[in-house]
From TrEMBL:
SUPFAM superfamilies: MFS general substrate transporter (SSF103473)
Membrane topology: Multi-pass membrane protein
Lineage start: Bacteria, Pseudomonadati, Bacteroidota, Chitinophagia, Chitinophagales
InterPro entries: Lfuc_symporter_FucP, MFS, MFS_dom, MFS_trans_sf, MFS_TsgA-like
Domain Major facilitator superfamily (MFS) profile: 30-421
Regions that span the bilayer: 29-50, 70-90, 97-117, 123-146, 166-187, 199-217, 248-272, 284-302, 314-333, 339-360, 372-392, 398-418
Protein name: MFS transporter, FHS family, L-fucose permease
Primary location: membrane
């Protein structure tokens, strides 16, 4: 007679063997996975370029920090408005057409920088940023479930974190381009806006070329591992509505606060280097490269740690790390605080993709719709820099107390509120 302990040990061993057999992806998806991964790189460049533009417009157009926060409002406001329409489009037209729509809007927004620079108008620049960000929102809405579909659901956390690592590479490239083309430009308005026009013209051409190349790629049929009702022991599980899936609802809330903290921290990074460390604007912008490099390192480390630590528990631990870093940054202690500011991105690294992946777990045919709502949660990034900018107008270091609230919410999500049933 088999004892209950033996059955339990056998079940555990079976689960371990199943996890070992879960591949990262399949051979037929490799080309598609490469293209989808490149999308993460593309919007990483555009997102951090917005942070350089924040400081650049302060210099060229005479904006205050709270006014320049409208750059982030235009970008993340587009996420709030575009994510649901993008999700509906993707549901009807498929992943590939969703990618092509996103790339088209991205390129169009980049080309709109030309008339904006010619008119020297902050309002037109914001329209261009909004259109470009609509493309970014569409790409984010499609890329995460697309990446999750390119293999076993048990390795979806690994695939999304892997792809987000290239998003971190793009985030390193963006500030370097901005520092070279924008903050190193001449000191008259016409010359500085000419550099903006040229840079975004080049970006538009590259994105248009990627769209044309992807249009020619034959994407193999994708069977989303999230789709379909679960069947366990011959019993078909009836799925709850999205708003009844607590792990999804809390993921949307956590993503709102997560992107709020990210947008505020990144938007005034150059200001912190200039005002606390007394760097030139150009030097402070170049420091964004190692700043984003910390995020890249954190994602590789985080991806490796997830093989041994549950993703939600690791998320909670990294949130505590960032609470401590924000406290040190807010003291304005020179290099000690500046190193802590760099470390914020290390701990931030896994937050966005992990919250996204945890929110999509076991949602079946609701996955695409859920992805849209989680992307919509990024609207937090539109509001937070405006509030943080008002404090930063008085004291840039003190403004870094505000993200602590956001990381406390993320800690609660990872440690207590995320429960997958």
């Amino acid at each position: 007679m088999i004892s209950p302990d033996s059955l339990e040990q056998e079940a555990l061993q079976t689960a371990k063997n199943a996890n070992k057999l879960a591949k990262f992806t399949e051979k037929k998806y490799v080309i598609t996975l490469i293209f989808v991964t490149s999308l993460f790189l593309c919007w990483g460049i555009a997102l951090t370029m917005g942070d350089v533009l924040n400081k650049h417009f302060q210099n060229v157009l005479g904006l205050t920090k709270s006014q320049s926060g409208l750059v982030q409002f235009s970008i993340f406001g587009a996420y709030g408005l575009m994510s649901i329409p993008a999700g509906l489009f993707i549901k009807k037209m498929g992943y590939k057409n969703g990618v092509l729509l996103g790339l088209t809007l991205y390129a169009l927004g980049a080309f709109l920088f030309v008339p904006a620079a010619n008119a020297a108008s902050f309002s037109i620049f914001r329209v261009a940023l909004f259109v470009l960000a609509c493309g970014m929102a569409t790409l984010e809405t499609v890329a995460h479930p697309f990446m999750a579909a390119l293999g076993d659901q048990r390795t979806s956390d690994q695939r999304i974190n892997f792809a987000q690592s290239f998003n971190a590479v793009g985030a390193m490239v963006g500030p370097s381009l901005g520092a070279h083309f924008l903050l190193s430009a001449g000191h008259n308005t016409g010359e500085e806006l000419l550099s903006v026009k040229q840079l975004y013209l080049y970006i538009g051409v590259v994105i248009a070329a990627i769209a044309i190349a992807f249009a020619m790629v034959k994407v193999p049929p994708v069977t989303d591992p999230h789709d379909g009702p679960s069947d366990q022991g011959g019993v078909v599980t009836v799925r709850k509505k999205l708003y009844q899936q607590k792990h999804f609802v809390f993921a949307v809330i956590a993503q709102f606060f997560n992107v709020a903290a990210q947008a505020g921290t990144w938007a005034f990074f150059i200001n912190y280097g200039h005002e606390v460390m007394h760097f030139s604007d150009e030097k402070a912008a170049y420091f964004m490269t190692p700043f984003m490099g910390m995020m890249l390192a954190g994602r590789f480390v985080g991806t490796a740690l997830m093989r041994f630590i549950a993703p939600n528990k690791l998320l909670a631990a990294f949130a505590i790390g960032n609470i401590l870093m924000c406290i040190i940054v807010a003291q304005g202690l020179g290099w000690t605080s500046y190193i802590a500011l760099l470390m914020i991105n290390f701990f931030f690294s896994i937050m966005y993709p992990t919250i996204f992946s945890l929110g999509l777990k076991d949602l079946g045919p609701q996955t695409q719709q859920a992805s849209s709502f989680i992307v919509m949660g990024m609207f937090g990034g539109a509001l937070f820099p405006l509030v943080m900018g008002r404090i930063a107008d008085t004291n840039i270091a003190t403004a870094y107390y505000l993200p602590i609230v956001c990381y406390a919410v993320i800690f609660l999500f990872g440690y207590k509120l995320y429960k997958l049933r």
